[in-house]
UniProtKB/TrEMBL annotation:
Similarity section: Belongs to the THEM4/THEM5 thioesterase family.
Keywords on record: Apoptosis, Cell membrane, Cell projection, Cytoplasm, Fatty acid metabolism, Hydrolase, Lipid metabolism, Membrane, Transit peptide
Enzyme class: hydrolase
GO biological-process terms attached to the record: fatty acid metabolic process
Enzyme Commission number(s): 3.1.2.2
Location, primary (coarse class): membrane
Keyword Mitochondrion: no
Protein name in UniProt: Acyl-coenzyme A thioesterase THEM4
């Protein structure tokens, strides 16, 4: 059995979810502003007090988990609370993933200063997270659903933040519940920056629905 999609919470009207997505975007902008601010200490303390009050207001009604996967108004699977693609998750870039007509997936990515690893460059763990997700989406685009079993990365060149790069992934081969997937993050001219290969496993409990037995 596949995990059931969560029944929508009564308060999850589309207008509220759209408002939450706007709030999440402001929270992303806030994290960038925090990472880059150079205002004096007194101003930092004043902003901190205002933020603490806002955190309390949002916490007045609090769930135990972010938005769970559901089917959006366009009839497509979505996961608004996901750390990579979730519109209502401030941690998400959020990545917008297209399915390519020739197979596989593609996403334009612009990393931000909050993704800093080596000075001035993107953290390798952040690019690994993005590639993990892209590989998983390529598996889903091929008509399967699976979890990462192994993920192997080759960091060829550092990724600059602030400049657009491109992520791609496509399924290589399948064998029973196993799906091998390759992907990369590259410059727009195709120069590879990080290459990934992963083995994704369809959990035995999902196999009947996903693979027909
Ligand atoms: C993640 C999606 C959730 C949403 C689901 C709903 C709908 C899906 C639709 C769309 C989704 C769209 C996009 C998804 C996007 C992103 C994906 C993000 C991916 C992640 O971020 S996901 C988190 C990290 N991931 C884990 O948290 C996995 C933890 N783990 C487990 O949950 C189990 O461990 C599991 C399921 C891996 C296997 O469990 P199992 O019981 O089903 O399989 P079993 O043990 O029977 O092994 C069968 C054969 O696979 C081999 N095998 C097993 N495990 C292996 C491994 N790790 N490496 C190499 N080979 C392995 C065995 O050696 C055997 O091989 P053999 O048959 O040859 O002997």
């Amino acid at each position: 059995m596949m995990p059931d999609l969560a029944p929508p919470q009564e308060s999850d009207g589309e207008a509220r979810l759209a408002a939450l997505a706007v709030l999440a975007q402001h929270a992303r902008d806030l994290t960038d502003a925090v990472a880059l601010t150079d205002v004096p200490e007194r101003e930092l303390r004043a902003v901190t007090a205002e933020l603490a009050a806002l955190t309390d207001r949002l916490g007045a009604a609090r769930r135990t988990a972010p938005a769970q996967p559901d089917i959006g108004p366009d009839g497509r699977f979505r996961h608004l609370g996901n750390a990579v693609v979730g519109d209502t998750n401030p941690h998400a870039l959020p990545l917008v993933i297209e399915r390519r007509p020739e197979g596989g997936v593609r996403a334009g990515i612009t990393f931000r200063p909050v993704h800093e690893g080596p000075p001035g460059l993107v953290h390798g763990g952040v690019s690994a997270m993005i590639l993990d997700h892209l590989l998983g989406e390529a598996v889903a685009a091929s008509g399967r659903a699976a979890m990462t079993g192994t993920l192997s990365l080759r960091y060829r060149k550092p990724i600059p933040y602030g400049t657009p790069v491109v992520g791609t992934a496509a399924v290589g081969r399948t064998e029973g519940r196993k799906t091998w997937v390759d992907g990369m993050i590259a410059l727009p001219d195709g120069t590879p920056l990080v290459e990934a290969t992963g083995l994704f496993i369809t959990p035995s409990q999902w196999a009947e629905v996903v693979l027909g037995g």
